[in-house]
Amino acid sequence: MNTSKSNILFFLPLVVMMIALSSCRNESDLIVEADENQVIKPDSKIASLMSKVSMNDGSIDNIIDNSTCFTVKLPITVIANGSEVLVSSVADFQVIEDIFMEFDNDIDELEIIYPVTLILMDYTEISVENETELENINNSCSPTDENLECIDFKYPFSVSVFDSESELIQVLSFNNDKELFLFLKNLKEEDITSIKFPITVIFSDDTEIIVNDIDNLQQIIEDTIDDCNDGDTTTDLFAQTIINGSWEVQKYKDNQSNETKNYKDFIFTFLENGSISVENTSTNEITTGSWSTITLADGTINANLDFGTQPPLDKLNKSNWNVKKVQDNRIMLDEKDNDGISKDELFFKKL
Which site from 40, 115, 199, 261 is most exposed, i.e. has the minimal number of CB atoms within 10 Å? Predict the structure, then answer.
């Protein structure tokens, strides 16, 4: 059997630590500490960051549950504008979207057939019997605990774990986020865990970076947090993102009325000087407007959008759009009611 050089290098630090720890038991005056730069501890910064990356991404099924805090376990049945749809996979979300675009309704309606099972960010599963129970869980969600959507691990990759009690080394291979998250959640303080590098991380724009050590991995994840977390959005980040390329309306909800289809023919270009150019691709008509931002006392950012008086663009006019999230390919704005629940939503997606 051939043993590759990379595998030898992978196990060597753990073997050395195992021998050292064994020596500690025989020589009370010898203190041996594992290299913290090569080991994942349950209370470490890197363990916390890797957990946030591997949390359940609740944003993928927003067309069904309108929440980033959980996903609905498939398969389920929904009624979209009167049409029954069996949703068995992520690909079926497009079926719902197509129905919304096809029907010329003032209000798009989606009814979930209960009971359904929700998968929370930590992969805990909860059965809900009705819309009220679902909304209660959604309202109790803490945005600070959300998955870091703009960075992912490329699977599979492996770790080696030395159990100091059994003195055994176990190699574990992760094939998806759930496996990694649950491993980190159950990591024991006495375990000595080492990643088999190199590993690869993938960003929201599909670019990839090869990572060769824990310090590098931690730095890369920390550097992307500004693009992932709502509270870290700045006016500069918003401006730099929105002036880069052209956009379409991915979602516009006026209270409970989904009116996204009214904007399917419009292309939005935001210019650095604060002006907006909107092209109606069905009529070739160009409409102009203006945009600006302001940072409030609590650190949140409001966007002021003015598209003039021509419908349906005039419905997007608002001086206090809350900048909910900024990503390379998506900008999410909303207006909340007095209870802090999103009342209106406007999402732009880069073309």
Answer: 115
